[in-house]
Structures are given as C-alpha cells and as structure tokens.
Description:
The structure holds 3 protein chains of 3 kinds.
Chain A: H1 5-13, E1 31-37, H2 41-54, E2 59-62, E3 78-79, H3 89-106, E4 117-121, H4 124-139, E5 145-148, H5 149-155, E6 170-174, E7 178-179, H6 182-195, E8 199-201, E9 206-212, E10 215-221, E11 224-234, H7 239-243, E12 252-264, E13 272-274, E14 281-284, E15 289-300, H8 308-321, E16 329-341, E17 347-350, E18 356-360, H9 366-383, H10 397-400
Parallel strand pairs in A: 1-2, 1-11, 2-8, 4-13, 11-18
Antiparallel strand pairs in A: 3-7, 4-6, 5-6, 9-10, 10-11, 12-15, 12-16, 13-14, 14-15, 17-18
Chain B: E1 18-22, E2 25-29, H1 35-41, E3 48-49, E4 56-57, E5 70-73, E6 80-84, E7 94-98, H2 112-115, H3 135-146, E8 162-174, H4 178-190, E9 194-197, E10 213-214, E11 217-218, H5 219-232, E12 236-239, E13 242-247, E14 252-258, E15 272-284, E16 288-290, E17 303-305, H6 306-315, E18 323-328, H7 331-342, E19 346-351, E20 358-362, E21 369-372, E22 377-379, E23 382-386, E24 389-391, E25 404-406, E26 411-413, E27 422-424, H8 434-451, E28 485-487, E29 492-493, H9 494-502, H10 508-515, H11 528-539, H12 543-546, E30 558-559, H13 560-564, E31 576-577, H14 581-586, E32 589-594, E33 597-603, H15 611-624, E34 627-630, E35 635-640, H16 644-651, E36 663-670, E37 676-686, E38 689-694, H17 699-713, E39 720-723, E40 728-734, H18 738-745, E41 746-747, E42 761-766, E43 770-775, E44 784-790, H19 794-804, E45 811-812, H20 815-825, E46 871-878, E47 890-892, E48 905-913, E49 918-926, E50 935-940, E51 945-952, H21 962-965
Parallel strand pairs in B: 1-7, 8-9, 8-15, 9-12, 15-27, 17-23, 18-19, 18-23, 31-33, 34-45
Antiparallel strand pairs in B: 1-2, 3-4, 5-6, 5-7, 10-11, 13-14, 14-15, 16-24, 20-21, 21-22, 25-26, 28-29, 32-33, 34-40, 35-38, 35-39, 36-37, 37-38, 40-44, 41-42, 42-43, 43-44, 46-49, 46-51, 47-50, 48-49, 50-51
Helix pairs in contact in B: 4-5, 4-8, 6-7, 9-11, 15-20
Chain C: E1 2-5, E2 9-12, E3 17-21, H1 35-43, E4 51-57, E5 65-71, E6 77-82, H2 83-89
Antiparallel strand pairs in C: 1-2, 3-4, 4-5, 5-6
Amino acid sequence: MRYSAWNIFKQGLTGNKGWTRAWRDATPKADYDIVIVGGGGHGLATAYYLAKEFGLTNVAVVEKGWLGSGNIGRNTTIIRSNYLLEGNQPFYELSLKLWEGLEQDFNYNAMVSQRGILNLIHSDPQRDAFVRRGNAMQLSGADAEILDRDRLKKMCPFLDFENARFPVQGAIWQPRGGTVRHDAVAWGYARGADARGVDIIQNCEVTGFVMDGGACKGVETTRGTIRAEKVAVCVAGSSGRVMDMAGMRLPIESHVLQAFVSEGLKPVIPGVITFGAGHFYVSQSDKGGLVFGGDIDGYNSYAQRGNLPVVEDVCEGGMAIMPMIGRARLLRMWGGLMDMSMDGSPFIDKTHISGLYFNGGWCYGGFKATPASGFCYAHLLATDRPHETAAQYRLDRFRRGVPIDEKGQGAQPNLH
Amino acid sequence: MSQQNRIEGGQIDRSKTLKFQWNGRWMSGYPGDTLASALMANGVRLVGRSFKCHRPRGIFSAGSEEPNALVQLRNGAAQEPNTRATTVELFDGLSATSQNHRGSLDWDLMAVNDVAAPFLSAGFYYKTFMWPKAFWEKLYEPVIRASAGLGRLSMKADPDVYDHGYLHCDLLVIGAGPTGLAAALAAGRAGARVILADEDFRPGGRLNAETYAVDGSAGSHWAGMAVVELSAMENIRLLTRTTVFGAYDHGIYGAIEKRTDHLADSRGKPRQVLWRIYSKRALLAAGAIERSIAFGNNDRPGIMLAGSVRTYVNRFGATPGQRVAVFTNNEDGLRTALDLRAKGIQVTTLDARKGDRIVDTRGRKGIRQALLADGRNLAVDCIAVSGGWSPTVALTCHHRGRPMWRDDIAGFVPGGELPPGLTVAGAANGTMTLGACLRDGHAKGAALAAELGAAGSTGDGPLAEDETFDITPFWHVTEARPRAWVDLQNDVTTKDLKQSRQEGFRSVEHLKRYTTLGMATDQGKTSNVLGLAVMAELDGHPIAETGTTIFRPPYTPVAIGAFAGRARGTDFRPYRLTPSHAWALENGADFVEAGLWLRAQWFKRPGEQGWRDSVDREAAAVRRSVGVCDVTTLGKIDIQGRDAAEFLNHIYANPFLKLPVGRVRYGLMLREDGVAYDDGTTARLSEHHFVMTTTTANAGTVFRNLEFARQCLWPDLDVHLISTTDAWAQFAVAGPNSRALLQKVVDDLDLSNAAFPFMACTNCTVFDGTPARVFRISFSGELAYEVAVPARFGGSMIRGLMAAGEEFGVVPYGTEALGVLRIEKGHPAGNELNGQTTARNLGLGGMVSKTKDAIGSKLSERAGMNRDDDLCLVGFKPKDRSVLLTAGAHFLTPGDPEDMAHDQGWMTSVAYSPELGHSVGLGFLKRGDSRIGETLRAYSPVRNQDTMVEVCSAHHIDPEGARQRG
Amino acid sequence: MIIPHPLLGPRDAAEFVYKGDATLIDRPDGLTASDDEMHDYAYLRDNPAGRHRELWYHEQGDRSWLVVTRDTRTHEILKVELARDVARAAGRAR
C-alpha cells in the first residue's frame, strides 16, 4: 500500500480501518540465497538494496528479538559526513547522499532533517585540525564551513560565550548534517524489502553456523535450520558474541554508549551541536525532546545500560556550553551496545570462511552509516567485490598496517 | 478568589494563608497544599493542553505520575517548564502558568489539531510530507517543530546551584509509605544503618490519603509517630523530597533531593542535591500507581484517578467536584465513594463488574455529563476512575529485569533479574492490602537487618486490617464509539492501538514506538498497563503473553543541572596553574588553555597593538639575546632502580641502555601499533636514576603506560616510577645569552661548553643553596637550558631569573613564541604528533632500533606504514613572501584537479618568523623528502585561501644545529 | 561500579581507568614474534558476553594495574587480582 497524503485523507474519512501491515510476519523457509543475520538498520538496509539494486529477493533477514531492537532504535539519530580520512569520507558522503533521497526512494517519511551539525572549536590546534578536515571534506565533494565566533554567536546565541572554562572560538559546520527519525528508518527499509519479497523473520535467534566442508552454508536458529549460499552477519554490538560461534576473534570490543532525552520543550536548538572540549552532543527532536549523549562508559559490556558517572559527565558538558538547559529535565536514558573497533572504523568484508560475510565495528558511526552500509554490503554480497567507497573496510587492514584512525588513538577501542 | 472547593479536614495548616499566581490571577492556599490541590480548591479545572491534539486537560492524579497538569513554574531565568503541579509544594508568592497553547489556555488555536485528528492517526507523519521533496525542510518540518514540545526554556542560564553528595548505608528503603515505614522501623530498631527516602514532603504515602487505622489510630497519625521514632534514631537518615531515580551497579542508587524547590527563594543554597547512595541492601517499597479505564472521551478535565480523588479529599481538604461519578472495576473505587460521601459530596457509583459502562462524556473544558451504555445521562463535575493498581516496579527494571503478569491482582510484579541486593515489598511487589503491606515491610526490614548483622530487637510490627481486595480486569468500554484515551499526554487512543496492530506493529516495543504510548514525560506510569491490556484484548492473547516494555532510569525526570552539579561555567573543570602564574599575571600575560593547564601565551608590553607584536618581539629576543619560558606543564616522571635503563630501552624506540650518567637523550615513544606516540628528553642523573619528560598532553597517559609495562609486561625489572610533574617547576632559558644568565644563577657549576656541553645534565643548587637540576636541551634551536627547582621555589625562581637577566634584556616568552621557535627549528609538536603519524612520517624513522624489543617497533615494520609514497614532514614557505600561511591547507600539485585523489598532504603548523621576515610552515607531504624546492598549492577552501608555496627543509633555521651546540 | 581492590578494599570504579582484555599482558617478544603473533596480540580481543578478564588501572589511587574478572552481561565482579601477580604467574619476568 502506497503511503501518500491522499491515502491519509481517505483513511481518515473511513476511520483508518484500511491500513494494511507494513511488512509480513514471515516464517523461515528451508533455504535462501542469502541469509542476513540481524534485523537492525544495517541488516534491513542490506536486504532492501539487495532486492532493489541487485534484484536478489530470495533473501531472509533473521532477527533475535523484534525488528529494529538493536542500535537503530537506541541512538541519537545524527547524520553527517564530516570525516577526515580518505578511507571514511567518501563512504559517509555516499551515505549522506542516500539519506537525502531515501524517503522518496522507500516511500516512508523518516524525517530526514538537514538542519546542520556544528563541532565547536575551543583552541588553535583544534581549529587547525578542523580546517584540515573541512578542506578534506570539500575536496571529497562534501560541504563544510568554518564559522568564526561572531557567526556562531548569531546562529547559537544561547551558547556560553562569556563564562566558559574552555571558551568557544568558533565551529566547523556541515549544513547538510542533521537528524533522522531512527525507528522509521528500520520500518521504512523493512517495508521496502518486504514489498520486494524479502522474508523478515523476527524472534529468530541464530545459535550457530551450518558448516559444510569448511564453508558456511546457513545458520542454526531457534526456529530451525536455515540454509543459504551466503550468510551475512550484521549484528553490530553483538559481533563478538555471534562471530565467536564461527570461532573468530575480532578486532572489536563491545561497549555501552548511553544516550539521553529530555522532556519535550519548545524548539531551541537549531541543528546538532557537538562540544569540542568535553563529551557532549545535542540535537532537538521534532517532538521537542533534547536528544543528547557523550562518551561511552568505557568498559566491555553487553548489559545495555550504563552507570552514573557518565550521566554526570555528559550533563556537565551540556551545562558547560549551554547553561540554559539546567532546568530542563532528563526524561529517559538508555544504553546501546557499540562494536568498538581498534581504529574506530568499521568492517564490511568477507571472512576467511567461504560463504560467511561480516559487517560490524561501527563504533558510534553506525546510524549515520545505515544506508551506505546496506548499499555497500549488498554490493559485496551480490558481486563478491567491495564497493569502491567501502574498499578500505577490510578485516586484514591491521595486518597490512593501514588502519583508518580518525582520532589517532590506536588500538584502544574505548578512546575512539 | 474564594477557595470554593475547599472542604474540611486534611493535613494542611489553615492557620496561615499562602498567596499564589495562576496564569496571572492571584489565588490562595495553605501550607501543606500542592499547587494542584490549591488549584483544585480554587475551582480551577482546566490546567493544560495535551501534546498532539491540544485537548483541554485537568488534574489527573495526585503524585509524580501526573501526565496532564504540567505547568511552567516561576518566572525569568528560574522558569521551569513541564513541572507537575501535583508535586509542587505551595509557597507564598508562587507563580505558575499553563503551557503548550497558542493564544490563551482557554482558547488554544492549536486545538484545531483535534478537529483534524482523524488524519493525525498513529504514525501518520511517516506516510506523508514527502512531496515535493524540498518541502519537508522548508515547510512541513518547520510547521511541525513550531508546534512541538511542551514547556519553554527561559534561554537564560539556570540561576540555581546544585550539589552532589555521597551516602553510605546498610539498607536503603525506597518509599516511606506503610511498607517502607514498617521496614525502616524494624531495621532501624535492629541497629542497621538505614536510609529511608521518599519523594513526598510528608512521609506516609497512601496512609496520608486514606482513612485506614494503624495500631488503633488514624494511619496518617501513625505515620507521623513513626517519623518521630525514626528521627530519634542515630542510625537512620530520613530523606524526604528525595526520589530514588535509578538503580546502578553494585548497590549504587541515584537519588535527587529537592532542597529549596519548596521555598520562594533559595538564598543561594543548592536547589537540589544529587546523591549517590552506596547500599549493601535495598528494599523497594514504592507502592503502586492507579490506572484508568478507556471509555469515550475519557480525557476531559475532571476525569481523575479515584485514589487521587481520595488524596485530595482526605489529605488536602479539597474536592474536585460536588457531583462525582465513580467508575471502577475493583473494590478500591468503592472506597472513594465512601470517603466522598463522608464529606457530604454527592456520588454515583458505576461498577464495571456489575455491567456499568460509561460510553461517552460531555464538557469541553470540564466534564459536565457522563453518558452510560444503559442510556442514562449523569450530570457530573468529576468522574473518579479506577482501573486497578499497577505495582511501581520501575527500579526493578533498571537492570533490564522484565516484570511478570499476575492475574489475581491484574498487574505486573517484579520479574527477571532484579538489581543484586534489591528486595521488593508491599504494593510494589503485588501485596495490595494495608495489613499485609505492614507485615511484609516489617518482616523484610527485620530479615534484611539480620542478614546485615544487625541483631537488635525489631519490636512489634504495626497492625492494621486487611481491606477487601477484589478486582475484575476491565480495561476498555468497547461499546464506546468516540476516541478513548490510553495515554493522556501523548494523545494515544484505543483507535491508535488498533491501527498499530493492523499495520503489524504488535510487539510491545513496536506499539510503544509507533504510537508513542508511554513515551510522554510520565513515562507511561498511568498508561502503559492499560495500553498493553487493550493490545492483548485486540490480539486475543493473555496479557502475560503480550508482555511489557521495561522502565529505564530515571524514575521521574531529573533536572540536567542537578546531574551537572557545580561543574559548570569556569568551574566545569579545575584549573592547573604553573608555578610562575602569579608572576605572569603581574606581567601582562595572556593565558591559554592547555588541557587543564593555563599557560601564558604571550606577555603584552605597553604600546603593542596585537598579539603578533608581542609574539614577534618575544621570539626575536630569544634568538637575539635570551628569554625565559615556564615549561613546568611538560610531564615529568622520575624513574629509579637497578633496571631503569633496561626498562627505558623497552619504552623508547631508540636505544637508551648506554646513555651516560650526566647526559640527556631525546626519546621517541611509539604506541604498540607502531604509530608515533610521544616524545621528550630523558636525563640520566645517576647510574640508576633517570628523569623523563613527556609532552604536556600525554603526561598522564605516558605514566599509565609505563606502569603497565612495569607491572604487566616486565614485572621483575627493578624499576620504580613516580610522577613529578607538579613537584618541579621548570624553566627554559634560551638564547645566545642563556649561558651568561644562568651562570649568574647556579652555585658552583661551570656551564662552559667544555664542562657542560649540549645534552648535559646535573643536579646542582641555585641562588645559594636552592636544590635544582639543569639540563642543556633546546626546543628553540638556540643555546638553551632548562632549569628545575622544587615547585615551591617556582615563583621566586622566575623572579630571580628575570632579575639576573636584566642586564641581557631577558624577556619572558609564552607558548606562542615557543611555537614560533619550534616551527622555525622544525621540531614536531601536537599538530604533527597527532596519533596518526609514524616515526617515518616525522623523519625520525632512523631512530627506531631494529635490534631491541621496544614497544611498537615490531608493528611499525608493517608494509602499509612503510610505503614509497609515505608522508614526510617538510617545511614550507610562501612563494610571495608577504603572504601568511595557514594551517590545515591541503597541498595540490599546480594544475591538478581539486579532489582527494590528488591530495598531496596538509599543512600542520604555521608561524610568522621574525627571524626570516616571512611566514613559515611545517606539513606532511607525500614523498616530501624528495620534493624540496618544488612549488605547490596550499589550498584551503574553507578559509578561501589558495597560496603557492615552496617546499623546503623543516629546519628553517640553523639546519646544522650549530647554535644549540655553541 | 565498585571494584574490590585486593590491597585497598572496595573502591569506586571512577577511580580507575579501563584498558581491556587481560590478554594484553601476554605480549610476545618483539624481536622473536611472528607478524601474526604481534598482530593478534595488539588487535584481537576476547569479547565474551559473560565472564571477562580485563585490565583496570587504579589511576586515582595506588597506581596498581588489576586483572578484574567481571561478567559483561551483569557487571558482577567475580575476582580481582594484582596484574603483576597474574603476569608473573604467566611466566613473565624481565
């Protein structure tokens, strides 16, 4: 059923009784061409692009819980392509371009809202680094501007320009950055993939891989064995746990990242703002809640919940740059599991096991990457060649000595 | 205005009248009132508007679960949006306004949304606003955002302060209702250290709202006596106005105590305190929260929870109406009728268990009429609804425990994994009658105390009768044709639930996210269970199968300012000040943040127009004569032990085993992944004693990594470390006259080139006996020394050095001139050592020894880090010498297209060189070492700059290093 | 979180800095290790959902490195040892 203003009008007049299911509740078949493990944003996007771009529809997405129950439903909804390194920038720029056409493409309003992203500058070395980054972005065809203090003040007069411990000196601005309604992304991709024939199977946990002569030929699940030519793992946050079933140790740790939302407030924040001298970033949702976050808790965790010190640290960051939010109340906090990789960058690659593919290691970057991750993973699965923008996201890059380390922190995942 | 709905009784103090303002009108109330009870007493029924449809809303509850009566409290910078009127203690002069309406509260223009409601069904926004594409950001979203949100921020800095505190106890009792009081009494009497916390300003919980007797006297009286007993015990800390909002790891609970919210003026005292409570055990006695029943137009002002009606009548002496209908599916609702009648209020009882059904209501801004399924129309001004009680299980979910359904009480009780150490008692655990709650609280309080080793007598538990408890689940008047609300704030109706199900959003999480059920500021306290029950009914499944979403912290919303505490403004992080800070202040220094440090970046002299004047003068003076710079911020690590040299040999990529005593060596550290990490000098003061310096930025982490190497990698080496960054004040004395200056300062130390050559070091004394260390090292490339004295002498040392240097025209120089000097000299600093570059990139590849096992050397050999087209650190100067270079520019070969494929590297650091009379730069360039003399574009589109530059040696000055050896 | 320090008793986790998987103690000798051994040491980590042995550093305390055995699903701490003892027990010396 196509979504349109006309249909809303028609349904509104007839008691909204004619809406049909957004996607089928499929039961698993015995075999598929491709089984995607993980019904989160990336898995669903992969299925969608496999069907749409490569005509591969004998595909199943298996999800342990409910569709979209992973990080696609537990993030701070930011999109941007303000990356520095050549291994990253084109990929995230592809993602941003896909975001820009997404809603018309999958006929679902995910509220892609490009109200811009600001990274505040507090020191000369930081400005130097941001100028380098902004130039790299422009050289890659992305948009970036450096704002001086006066221009920033016009844009965000509520920032603390007078009494800050780390004075605000300006910002790097990507006007095309912004936010997207996260759950809608999962639902839109699911609906689009389903309409093209992909089976989306919820409450189906993978318990093992079907191995045959050293090759992966499917998955064992709580709903039976599902055979497949190719198995595409896409479970960021739980990559360690799932790939362990294939005997793989990964350059990844699982960490918890907390995120926060305030009570609904009349609009005050124009786009996304990132504090450059502490751990804090914020945007405001279309419902009015301040959506904000900061650093990971910093220790390996699968608990999907964090602790108080980081809550305090994040709110301190918020009060440091915008002390007018002190009387706004924090309404909800939650924890998402991050695949923190050794260089802060992800993987989209084949594994050494024939038939087994891996997508993970997204650190904080997962949400914004959703369309490109799906697109490039679909490309890899369909053609067995990496997409040109994801060519550096290889599992062997550390062996070869070509990490993609935006922050320059080395093999210390909790610092990325 | 008279308090027309004030009735007799209640726990308010009528001897004193409080004046308050509601939407600009003055009203009166009494101490003991909440804003909600005072509004009610004054006959105010319409208090707000719902989120989506802007439907008129009245007071719905009497506690923190309130979804409707959200107001903006106070004025000016102290304006506090979304404040529950039901939890605001009335104070004299209080001012509150309604929120979320355009125009007046009575005539909200946005109420047009309600007319359009058929087109604003669940998830409607996902299905439209997509055409034409550009309209979302230009039109649709701005319109949606303009109407989004509830209350308004003042946009001024929060004027209040907040504190953080830490408390420790044996037993934390959460909730001071009957269960919690009984438990705290038992545990306290036994001798356990107990903290009893309750969100209300009056302990007692439901005892204050009911007419039950405990131990033969009124329940509220008993609660008062219990508080008296608890307050007398030294091992008990009673925290009222304190909400335990989160259960964290290892028995740590977060709590927020309101300290001055109930006062007209905080007088500078903290508004709230965020407590971290460290408990050995915790007992959750948070009671239960009542829920509604879905019937047609069940959202009008005057339709309230039945238990809350009792609270207003019994505790606050205020009645929501004069003609009340009670609509209930359980025995509890009937008690409301009894209590109201006892106050002389007219009541009609509608018992769902007997087939009574309300199908619709009338009354736009306040309920006027209830329409029943049997055709009756009742004239009412209040409907008290009870759909049963839901145990307050929120905290039990904070470790992701999932509550379980219990049919007998028609509610979810704690289930799954509870936070370790947490026990649940009373109504929160599904014990729904008073006598049983008291027994449960007493027993569990006593048992936990015993478990914790408190062996005193717990005394007798309080006694009360068990009232009848009888509930027949009834959720939804299916005969009702109009919309029936489930979530009052977010305007989620049973129709939305139906549609959500129809579209396949059936899992409880999908239901929540698609319809926004339970995502309002009340986090679904009154709506979740009703919504799930209606969904289960639609599915034809038992509720147990449908399951529930879980609660996340905080239990009730907490001010962001409270989490931040005092860490804001200039107190956001502590300042570290150098030993010469006071002197620098006196001498015109302008300071810059370097991590937590404040460092002098230049010293302004009279007549200087801008920072460049000062910096040029300082840099030139160093090259010409002598300057002094405080370099204390560099990390200093004292390393001692028989194996200290061997240890350092593992740490640095270059050899250190054979460093002679009395000599300093430049050392380069790699991370284990082979990337350059930190650099600095290490001095060997004696056979087994070294002093390492690190960069300012990495002082802490280098020390940490050394301890890791010492304890974990080479645990048997005899070596000991101590950080001495703050123990020694250190000054660079640089320039051709540095020797002459320093010679005046040191006692009995020959600084001649022969006696104390480049890279020499020694212990000595200065100024007649002050212990000191002198190192002959140079960051500027000039003849230079660093001299260190114990930090307490730092202030006198700078004064002494300046006095001694007067004859040479000595200048103090700041970090900017330091930067100019090092860029001229080609020394890498933070912009070059950025964690992404290798020794090879820095031109230091030769330092990495292949004959020893040092951290990072093995992995630095990987092919990807040793490519032919690797970046090399080289120097740059503008072709047009009058042009100033800027950092961050990318290099392009002239004629090449401007894209990343043709990117040749970037400019890392630039400075104006007063020595050379033009701008100089350092930067990384592909194959840079073989491109000296080449002309490139330094392209910086974000700064609208495009400059032709010439590649040169990074050593702009004295490439042979003659000056520093002189 | 609270970490029971073997020398100092219970300490708030905020006093510590986290490093990661305790296999980082098992550093091969850089002169003799193969490329793969060094790569695996530096980049591959145990990342179980369950019992995890991990390194914590008491930076705001006595500067001990500890090996903490902790359940990554519940954060329950099962054992805490001085990392130096663990290293020595594993045969590390000079």
